[in-house]
Amino acid sequence: MAWSTRELAELAGTTLRAVRHYHQVGLLAEPERRSNGYKQYGVAHLVRLLRIKRLVDLGFSLAQIADLGELDDHPAEALRTLDAELAATIDRLQRARGELRDILDHAAPTDLPPELAPADRVDLSDADRSFIAVLGRVIGPQRRRAWADMLQDLPDDPVAADFDDLPDDADEPTRQAVAERMVPYIHALRARHPDLEKPYSDAPRGPRFVERTVTKALQDLYNPAQLDVLQRAHTLIREGRGTPPP
Questions:
Q1: Which CATH number among 3.30.530.20, 1.10.1660.10, 3.40.50.1820, 3.40.462.20 corresponds to the domain 5-71?
Q2: Mind spelling out the 3-state secondary structure of 173-227?
Q3: I need a labelling partner for 223 at 20 to 30 A (CA). Which of 68, 78, 86, 137 fits?
């Protein structure tokens, strides 16, 4: 019994184009030809084509199928590897579906990790929101939880708005005044959320990468006067200025 290329493709449940491509890449041997020049395929070709199609449907690439060769009818090790990859893919897709449900149900932002989504419902400046989006990409889960808690419990202090509105040419007395008023604000944040001060030990790429990224984000998002105020405020805190809440 011999089949034409079209008949072989139909029997295997694939296409003429696929059969021709498998010939081109060396996965399927070329058959003999009839006297009229037409190809004639036999059972061995059909069995090989069925195996190729099954492996492709399971998720193997053509290169992986080529590496398996033609004699291994049950590539157990390769199948176990693929099974592990599929399990990881399913887990990733399930997490993605969970995040999509949160986005759809709560109109959550797409640029923030799920833990920091509350930032979208807080009255933040564009710079603060962008900073949180960047920070969420580099810190670990412990710090993300601390930031999420803080964002839902921000102290009501006008100094935050004064800092947001600070022009880049703010004079010396203005900068110093805002910095001094920020000291108790920072103390209050740290007292309410002590985990904010914990080391970046669970950061995926390590503490030094977090510090470099934070520095870069601050420089890109805040104007020189705001950066100067932050530096002054933290200097005052290191010097013991201001009294932390009891």
A1: 1.10.1660.10
A2: HHHHHHHHHHHHHHHHHHHHCHHHHCCCCCCCCCHHHHHHHHHHHHHHHCCHHHH
A3: 137
